[in-house]
Design brief:
Distance between the termini: 118 Å
Largest sheet: 5 strands, antiparallel
CATH topology of one domain: Immunoglobulin-like
Structural class: mainly beta
Number of strands: 37
Number of helices: 2
CATH class of one domain: Mainly Beta
Length: 610
């Protein structure tokens, strides 16, 4: 039985153990509980792509649902991928396979890297578990949990915007209220309405520092959503505004996006009044040759006394209607002196489609634009001039992510690397140990050292080193290595972390697995090897091969020298002959020249000869 057969058998065993046959999900021997969605990645010009990792939070349905056999655990939740779609970190299992939203790196709290996201409330909708905003450090450990501390029924899934310095954060908020419909021309009716708003929250305590509610400032008649035919009799009621993002500028004023009014609002931090409206029924700006519809994720890019520049995703559609044929990211300049708005840049969805729900737009440090189109995790990157340089999406149509981000990030988990090893072979002479190692969340690993030891107390012996290959790296060592470990190294070869010492897995029945002991071994079953002896033998073999190679090279050199020596002698002889010929020729020329001085030259003065 060959090593390849054993690896194939292990692969089949792994698939059976997972009880799935999903080609659209990743699977790992060291972390079988992780079943992260795979990406299909297309690069159009990789040279122009910015550095960084992708931050996504795949989910299958928006509302919480109990874990079922249909969806295995550890598929949804916060995930980090590299630019090739290789998994870097899955945090799904840490949060009971609950949906998470607005997952991103936060690099403006201090000089270290952090993570923030929203964890949705529990599966059973327990009133005491309303979800919250979480902040983790670069070790993936809790720094802050921002709970719901007021009357809001749950931490809303749209926004958890940690502001620079990390002291406060912004969140959108929803409240169901019974309102009269007089503003809609129906004075005798009232019913349930889902109102919106936002809060600025103290990160350390969860205390609400600023609470703004749409119903106090935006009438029901401003909605562009279909009005209910009759007043809703049960909560949550008519969603008349649907706020979906909130940002804050250096002056302290707030930028609010409301999907069902097709409007972006600037709101005063002093008294909460609306400073201006962009878009919708009551726009304070004249829009120069553009419009937008059902937008998401409005963000400040720059701001001064006369101009404000913002970015947002123009979905141009919703579940039932559309205002254009293609979604796009818009960069819009607002002249607050002339009250005119103009498009600075437009980045159309590369596949020409519509994002009817969700999505975001992010400006990267190098000026590139990263767009999350949401459905099926589709996202893309553009250069400032609009060139699409990359696009990617989940292979599975089952998954989406509310937003997609790209950030540079440094992760160093506190948990050790995960290691598993298996011993294979049909005979004593061809036993091998196959190592598998991974380190969920580590971003700096460049290579792995693999060790073995005769027993748990023996010193480890280095048996090999290989470059990191994806989330999980494999290494094959000669011999039956019983106690094994692995060490992560960075690009300079410095140690980062060591796995626990593990005992290799062997077949429960060697003979049934096809093992045939060597006739001269005197044993029926294989025995663990002494790693030092194996490494020593391998080193001796390598040294012998190196010596043999050196001797062969020396022999070939000597033969070449002999040949070259013969050729060299001939060349010397020819050189001497040629040189001697040259000397003789030169001497003859000199003699001829000296003899020329004594020749008799006729002269009129000379006497005639007789």
């Amino acid at each position: 039985m060959t090593l390849a057969w054993w690896i194939l058998a292990l692969s089949l065993w792994q698939t059976a153990a997972a009880q799935v046959n999903d080609d659209d999900l990743m699977s790992f021997i060291t972390r079988p509980e992780i079943r992260a969605p795979k990406f299909d990645v297309k690069y159009h010009d990789r040279r122009l792509v910015s550095p960084g990792y992708w931050f996504v939070a795949p989910y299958t349905v928006l509302e919480p649902e109990p874990p079922t056999k249909k969806w295995m655990p550890c598929q949804v939740g916060p995930h980090i991928y590299d630019a090739d779609g290789t998994l870097i970190w899955s945090g799904s299992c840490l949060f009971e396979n609950r949906n998470t939203f607005d997952f991103k790196a936060v690099n403006h709290i201090d000089d270290k890297t952090h993570l923030s996201f929203i964890v949705q409330h529990a599966f059973d909708n327990n009133a005491d578990q309303k979800g919250g905003g979480l902040i983790l450090d670069g070790r993936y450990e809790y720094e802050n949990v921002v709970p719901v501390t007021n009357d809001v029924g749950a931490f809303d899934i749209h926004e958890f915007n940690v502001l620079p310095g990390g002291k406060t954060a912004l969140a959108t908020a929803y409240r169901a209220m019974v309102l009269d419909f007089a503003d809609l021309g129906r004075p005798d009716e009232q019913g349930w309405v889902m109102t919106g708003g936002f809060e600025e929250i103290d990160v350390a305590t969860g205390d609400v520092l600023f609470d703004w509610r749409t119903i106090d400032h935006i009438p029901l008649s401003e909605s562009t959503s279909a009005w209910p035919e009759g007043p809703p009799g049960d909560p949550p009621g008519w969603d008349y505004i649907h706020v979906n993002s909130i940002d804050k500028n250096a002056d302290g004023d707030y930028l609010l996006s409301a999907r069902f009014t097709d409007t972006i609002y600037l709101i005063s931090h002093e008294d909460g009044h609306i400073i201006w409206r962009l878009g919708g029924k009551s726009s304070d700006f004249e829009l120069d040759n553009f419009r937008f519809y059902r937008q998401h994720h409005a963000r400040f890019l720059s701001h001064n006394e006369t101009h404000t520049t913002i970015s947002f995703l123009n979905n141009a559609s919703d579940e039932q209607s559309e205002d254009d044929i293609r979604s796009s990211v818009l960069i819009v300049s607002l002249d607050t002196t002339t009250m005119r708005a103009s498009v600075v840049a437009r980045y159309g969805r590369p596949d020409g489609g519509l994002s009817r729900l969700r999505g975001n737009a992010q400006t990267l440090p190098n000026g590139n634009i990263f767009a999350g189109w949401s459905q099926q995790g589709y996202h893309s990157e553009f250069t400032p001039d609009g060139t699409c340089v990359m696009e990617a999406r989940f292979i599975s149509p089952r998954f989406s992510t509310y937003r997609s981000y790209k950030f540079e990030f440094h992760g160093r988990p506190t948990e050790p690397p995960a290691l598993k090893a298996f011993v294979y072979g049909a005979r004593d002479s061809d036993l091998s140990t196959v190592y598998y190692v991974s380190w969920n969340g580590a971003t700096d690993v460049a290579s792995w050292n693999f060790y073995a030891q005769a027993d748990p107390a023996s010193p480890p012996v280095l048996v090999g080193n290989v470059p990191k290959a994806g989330f999980e790296t494999m290494f094959v060592a000669d011999g039956y290595m019983n106690w094994v470990s692995a060490e992560a190294l960075d690009g300079e070869g410095k140690p980062l972390g060591m796995s626990d010492v593990m005992q290799s897995v062997v077949p429960p029945d060697w003979l049934a697995a096809g093992f045939h002991p060597d006739a001269d071994s005197g044993r029926k079953l294989p025995e663990p090897a002494d790693p030092a002896a194996v490494v020593g033998a391998l080193q001796a073999e390598e040294d012998a091969k190196a010596q043999e190679k050196a001797e062969e090279e020396a022999h070939q050199y000597a033969k070449a020298y002999e040949v070259l020596g013969g050729i060299g002698g001939l060349l010397v002889f020819m050189s001497v002959v040629c040189s001697l010929g040259g000397i003789l020729a030169a001497a003859g020329w000199m003699i001829r020249r000296r003899r020329g001085h004594y020749l008799e030259v006729p002269s009129e003065e000379a006497p005639p000869r007789h």
